[in-house]
Prior knowledge:
The protein is mostly helical. It has helices spanning about 1-5, 10-20, 25-35, 45-55, 60-70, 75-85. The chain has six helices and no strands. The protein starts with a helix and ends in an 8-residue tail after the last helix.
Amino acid sequence: MILNKLAxxxxxxxxxxxxxxxxxxxxxxxxSIERKKYERKPAKIDNEALMADVQAYPDDYCxxxxxxxxxxxxxxxxxxxxxxxxxxKRP
Length: 91
C-alpha cells in the first residue's frame, strides 16, 4: 500500500507524516523489493555419481569419497544430506 503510493508519485515526506514511519523504513522496504534474486550455481558433485559411489562403497567415510571426487569432505557431507543419505544409526 505504501509502496504503491510511492510508485504513483507521493513524496516520502507525505508518506512519513501519513503513516508515522521513518523515511529510512520506507526506503528499506522499497530497496528490499527491488533486490535481484540470484540463482545458485550448480552443484559440483553429481547426485547420480554420488549414489553410484555409495552403492559401490557403502561403508566409506566422507574423506574417502572426497578423494575420489576431488573435493572436500564437507562438500561430500552436504551432498549426502542433499540426496537424503545419513549415517547408520545404532539399534
